[in-house]
Amino acid sequence: MKKNHHQDHVLCEKCKNAKSSLIKFCTQQQVENVNYAKTCSTYKRGDVLFHEGGLPLGIFCLNSGSIKIVKSASGGKEQIVRIATSGDIVGYRSLLMRQRYSASAIATEDCKVCLIPREEFMKLTTENPKFYEALIERLCKELEESQNKMADIAYKPVRGRLAEALLLLSQSNENGLINLTREDLASFIGTVKETTIRLLSEFKEEGLIEVDRRTIRLIDVVGLEKVSNIYD
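Request: output the structure for the sequence above.
Response:
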């Protein structure tokens, strides 16, 4: 796990994601315990938070930035199964299932991440029913999103999948900008880089998006929604 040595501790109650995070279900004492136990680190783009097959250390809470959750595919390729953004938690399923990580987590841009140790996290799940319920709800939501994505890859054309991915990624990013490499975007929607580049050019010509080097900004959300809903 590679990270820089500069640690800028973020208190849970001062976190910009506090109102949407699971920490809002904790008591004052539990919040203090988490603040004391956790470590906060800054990861650079390309840094690995954890490796597929590794033993879970705890849960990772994203204060800022984005992380790709990657599974190894055949021929040494990687498949991005999820993009986690500010406010999301990563690595908790392996902890709950008491198994090794089923995927790797890699920073797609500079991010600040808090690691809550395994023991502290498990204590919250057993001592705080509201926290546990909210966690299970989040797990179910992720599972539903994963099933929808699988259905889209099976039935929706690549053009529609790209439009849907752009809408999703824009909504989950605080400034609305999408800052993924074309390889990562292609892997996320289940296609090749060349197709992604061609379709992005088409979207740009149609006035749906603006592209500035790697950064994508949505211009016509309604237009993209129409594209994302075409199944033939």
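Confidence is low (pLDDT under 50) at residues 1-6.
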